[in-house]
Amino acid sequence: MRPVLELKTPEQLKTMRRAGLVVAHALREMAAAVAPGVTTQDLDAIARAVLAREGAASNFLGYSPGWGMPPYPATVCTSVNDTVVHGIPGDRALASGDLVSIDFGAVVDGFHGDAAVTVAAGQASPQAQKLSDVTREALWAGIGAARLGGRVGDISAAVERSIRQQGRYGIIRDYTGHGIGTAMHMDPDVPNYGKPRKGPVIVEGLCLAIEPMVTWGSAKTAVLDDEWTIVSQDGSWAAHWEHSITVTRTGLWVLTAEDGGEAELKARGLPFGPLAD
Ligand code: MF3
Ligand code: CO
Question: Does the pLDDT at position 71 exceed 90?
């Protein structure tokens, strides 16, 4: 069955943008706080403070996808080194050279935002920095492949191609990007690999979370006993970058970027197409 996709009105897209801005602000504050000696719980405290200050709710706290999964216990996922995604904040202090993916979401007036960045504590090794750069570039390649009348497979194929051009990396297949709107995870899935011209058609009002997850080794993952933490099976480090986006008649709108994606899009010759306030 073809999934029914939730299409937002222009008014609803503006609410999506408000949620996206809360996410952008919190990620900026958390990323700036990452340093040796800082714990991942410290990052969660920053996220909670931003939610309170901006009057938004957490979509991560208490989240369970079903099938008996325990409710997620924090407002942010902090995934360090060989943790790929869904790392739970704790009292572990970051060490210099650690690579932490910070994944955060917020709800404003019933509409969700979701984004992630990867940052190093102190000085990243060249290998870790390249891993993060490759993953971030793949995110923008995916965003840049989205257009009205195109298909979700165009995004997937662009993400995959971008990573493969950079060398031998593990492209996670066990987790994908997703539709987003009145829930955090909606149809369609947005895989980080695939074929152009396949999958659902991208139309006005569709909002997608694009989120490449990449390791410098194998793409195989395992789940820890806490039932949340996803690690690489071979211990290789991982990076994760994510934005929630929509496509308007005039171009791309990166809902979770502080500037709507303007700088990154223009740098790549891509159309920036926000709705007017
Ligand atoms: N933000 C993640 C995603 O990108 C999901 C987080 S799971 C949660 O899809 F339990 F932490 F909410
Ligand atoms: Co997501």
Answer: yes
